[in-house]
Amino acid sequence: MDLAYDGTHFSGWASQPGRRTVQQTVEQAWGVLLRDLAPTTTVGGRTDAGVHARASVVHLDIPLRQWQALPGRSTRSPEQAALRRLAGVLPEDIVVRSVRVAPAGFDARFSALHRRYSYRLNDRPESADPLRRHDTVHLKRPVDELRMNEAARALLGLRDFAAFCRKRAGATTTRTLLRFEVVRDPDGVVVAHLEADAFCHSMVRSLVGAVVPVGEGRREPAWPAEVMRAGARNPGVTVMPAHGLCLEQIVYPPESELAARAQTTRSRRDGLEGRSI
Amino acid sequence: MDLAYDGTHFSGWASQPGRRTVQQTVEQAWGVLLRDLAPTTTVGGRTDAGVHARASVVHLDIPLRQWQALPGRSTRSPEQAALRRLAGVLPEDIVVRSVRVAPAGFDARFSALHRRYSYRLNDRPESADPLRRHDTVHLKRPVDELRMNEAARALLGLRDFAAFCRKRAGATTTRTLLRFEVVRDPDGVVVAHLEADAFCHSMVRSLVGAVVPVGEGRREPAWPAEVMRAGARNPGVTVMPAHGLCLEQIVYPPESELAARAQTTRSRRDGLEGRSI
What is the rounded CA–CA span in Å between residue B30 and residue B186? Predict the structure, then answer.
C-alpha cells in the first residue's frame, strides 16, 4: 500500500507502547477490515516523530481467504474495497493512496533501491504561509540557496556519513547520497531535495542543518564536506526540526529484480535499511 | 499591513462576542504593541469562518507618537519593529507579512479595485495529501476540469449574481467577474481561480458549487449560466465548504488614484464592499 500522512500528531512510524504512531494506527485499521487481530506491517521508510510522508510504501501478509472477503457483497475488487474501507476507518491525517497485491519477492523495506526526502525552509517573513506551518521550518536569517546548493553538491557520492548520523553499534554509516539539491520554489520557500540508497538516523536533518549556516553566510560552502571528512559529529551542525521533513518517494527496482534486491540488502545485515531521518 | 492566516480555528474575520476571530486577535496584538486599547482595523476582504487568507490587506490609524515609539531602544524602523513584535505576539495561525505607512487616501476596504480567491478540490484519493487537508476539499467523484472551466468562462463579465448570493436587503448583487478559471495543478489538485471587483456573501463558494456538478458530468457546461440568468438561488447549487477557499490577493489602484477610488466606492453605498465568500 502507498501511504501519506501528516506526522504532526504522531510519535513517528514505529509502534511504541502508549504512543499514537502511524504503524499502530494502520495495523489497527487493517484489523478492523479483516475482523481479526491487527496484522504486522513492514515499511520502506521509518520516520521519526513529527516527520511527514507523501508516499510511503508498506507491505503486509493477508490470508487469501480474508483478502477475497474484503469486498463483502459489493462488486468491488479486494483492492478497491480495501482502499475505500481504510478511508472510512483511518483518521484524516493518514491517507491510503493505493492498495495492490505485491509482486512476488517484494519486501517494502529490503527491496527498496533508494529513498527521497524533501525539507522545507522559509527565510522570508513576508512570504510565510500559515497554512504550511505544519511542514515548513522558519529560519530567523535569510539564506542564499545557491551557496547551500554548492555545499550540498560536495557531499554527493558513496561516503561515510558518520558525522551526520546518530551512532548505532554495529551499523555502517556508509551511504550513497544520490541527490542533495537546494532550490527556492516559486513561493519563495527554500526546499532541499535528498535521495540516497538509505539514510541513517537523523541524517537528513543533520545534512540540512550543515548547509543552513552556509546559506546564512556563517560558514563557507566547503565546510559541510570538511565536517563529513572529520567523521565525527560536529556541534556546529544542528539537527533540524522534524516538521520540515517529508518522505517523498521510495524507489523499487523492476519486478524481476525485487527478490534479488531484497536478498542482497538482507545479506548485508549492516543497518542499510529504511531507517531514515 | 499584509496578513496571512489559517482560518481553520477562527470564526472568520469579523469580531464577534465570545468567538475567536482574526480581527479581534490582530487588534488585541496591536493593543499590546501600542500599550493602549486595541485599535480598530479595516480589512479589504472579510472572510467567513474557516476561510483562509494568503494576502489580506488591513489598515488602522495609529497616533504618530505611538508609531514612532514602536522601535523602543532598538535601531529598527517603526515598520520593522511592528513586524517583529507582532510576530512575537500573534498566534502561529496568523502571519503579518509586511507593515508600512499607508499612502494618503488609502482605505483597505474602499480603495480596493478587486479581490482574487482560490478554491482547492481533490478528486483523486491516490493523490490526496493529508498535509493539505486543511485547505483542500475532497470530492467523492472524479471531475473533468476542462468542462468546469468551460462552464466557468460563461459566467464572466458584469452580471447580476443574485442566484449565487445570500440575500441582503438593499444590497446589489451585480458584480464584475473578471476571472473564473479551473485548472488541474501538477499535484493533481483542481484549483479554481476567481477574481471580481467584489464578491457578495457566499458567492465564491456558490460559483464553485455550480461548476462541480458540470465537472462530474451530472450537468451540462451551460447549466451554471442558466442558473445565473434565472436570478434565484437554485437547490442544485451547493455552497461549497469554507476550508477549500483562500483569499489570495486584493488589488489596489496606483497611489494617485487611491482616494478617488475610495470616494467612488463609498458613494455607491450599495454593498459593493469587501464582503466575500
Answer: 40
Tell me the pTM.
Answer: 0.88
B131 touches chain A (CB under 8 A): yes
For chain B, 277 residues long, give each residue's pLDDT as a single digit of tens. Answer: 999 999 999 999 999 999 999 999 999 999 999 999 999 999 999 999 999 999 999 999 999 999 999 999 999 999 999 999 999 999 999 999 999 999 988 999 999 999 999 999 999 877 789 999 999 999 999 999 999 999 999 999 999 999 999 877 777 899 999 999 999 998 899 999 999 999 988 999 999 999 999 999 999 999 999 999 999 999 999 999 999 999 999 999 998 888 888 888 887 645 454 444 4
| ipTM score over 0.90, yes or no | no
Check if B85 contacts A (Cβ < 8 Å).
Answer: no
The answer to whether B94 faces chain A, any CB pair under 8 Å, is yes
Residue A261 pLDDT class (50, 70, 90 cuts) = confident
The single-letter code of the amino acid at B124 is: R
pLDDT at residue B273 in the model: 47
To the nearest 10 degrees (0 to 180), the angle between helices B145-153 and B223-230 is 30
Which of 153-212 (A) contact B at CB < 8 A? none
Predicted confidence at residue A270, as pLDDT, reads 52
All residues of chain A having their beta carbon less than 8 Å from the beta carbon of residue B92 are 130, 133
Residue B139 DSSP SS3? coil
Q: Verify whether the Cβ–Cβ distance B92 to A130 is below 8 Å.
A: yes
Residues of A designated as active site: 48
* Whole-number Å distance between alpha carbons of B136 and B124: 12
Which of A8, A85, A129 is best to mutate for the B interface (most B CBs within 10 A)? Answer: A129
Please give the Cα distance from A104 to B103 (Å, whole number).
69
How far is C-alpha A167 from the chain's CA centre? 19
**Which of B76, B90, B131, B138 to mutate against chain A (most A CBs within 10 Å)?**
B131
CATH of domain B114-252: 3.30.70.660
CATH for B2-98 is 3.30.70.580
Look up residue B267 and give its DSSP letter.
H
Locate CATH 3.30.70.580 in chain A: 2-98
Contact of A158 with A198, CB cutoff 8 Å:
no
Q: Report the gap between the CA of B117 and the closest CA in chain A (Å).
A: 15
Residue A47: predicted pLDDT: 95
Specify the residue for cell string 491487527. Answer: A38
Distance from CA of B96 to the nearest CA of A (A): 7
Question: How far is B81 from chain A, CA to nearest CA, in Å?
Answer: 13
DSSP result, A244-255 = GEEEEEEE---G
From B6, B96, B130, residue closest to A131, measured CB to CB:
B6
Range list for CATH 3.30.70.660 in chain A: 114-252
